[in-house]
Amino acid sequence: MDLKIAGKSALVFGGSKGMGYATARQLALEGVHVVIAARTESTLQSASTQLSQDCGLAVRHVVADITTAAGRQAALQACPAPDILVTNADGFPPGDFQDWDSETWHRALDLMMVGPIDMIRQVVDGMRARRYGRIINIVSRSVKAPHAELGLSNGARSGLVGFCGGLARQTVRDNVTVNNVLPGAFDTDAQARHIQKLALSQGDSVEAIRKSREAHNPAGRFGRPEEVGALIAYLASDLAGYMTGQSLLIDGGEYPGIF
């Protein structure tokens, strides 16, 4: 299938690892000029080198923290007019909401809501003027099926999704769509950290918790990052111009509802 996005430009946050890396890879394979952004130079350098080798197209990188104005500006200097923006940020570790003070909440909001919204603010007008734009947020299944221990993510990511629901209806006439991808349990470093935290709090082994979580999923496994990358590449494509304001689960069928 020709996604008709060869030659477009994309800015992918969290692109040095996991689902962000898989997304950058799939977009580059489609002929998109990709810039990956994250906070660590060493992992970015390694990722951009590997992606460039695998995809046959130069993938550039920029050190940029989405939670800071300086970080967002650095990302835009590296990719001033993206046709595709993918926001993606690690969640916070599981915990008890009684332990989260206002500073913790503000850090979570900056990471998972305010930073992504400001990035959207800075690129959306250019997309509308060019009459092409695809904004895709990698959030979490927790906005649809909240877990008590993930309250920081439940709250902050839901704020981003709610904001984007309103924006999406304003921009689609200009061929700018805004959608969210809601991953469940995926085989990533973030998932490994989550399981380690649960193991410490529950007094169980990491391996036992992992096996239990895999067995609980109807698919009998964790998701593969490249499955998210493929979904996002479609949402970023010219073929998906009539899909906007949606939050798409990709969780192996673990969510029990039909809506």
TrEMBL record:
Source organism: Acidovorax bellezanensis
Protein name per Swiss-Prot or TrEMBL: SDR family oxidoreductase
InterPro entries: NAD(P)-bd_dom_sf (IPR036291), SDR (IPR050259), SDR_fam (IPR002347)
Xref: Gene3D superfamilies: NAD(P)-binding Rossmann-like Domain
SUPFAM superfamilies membership: NAD(P)-binding Rossmann-fold domains
Alphabetized Pfam families for the sequence: adh_short_C2
Protein family per UniProt: Belongs to the short-chain dehydrogenases/reductases (SDR) family.
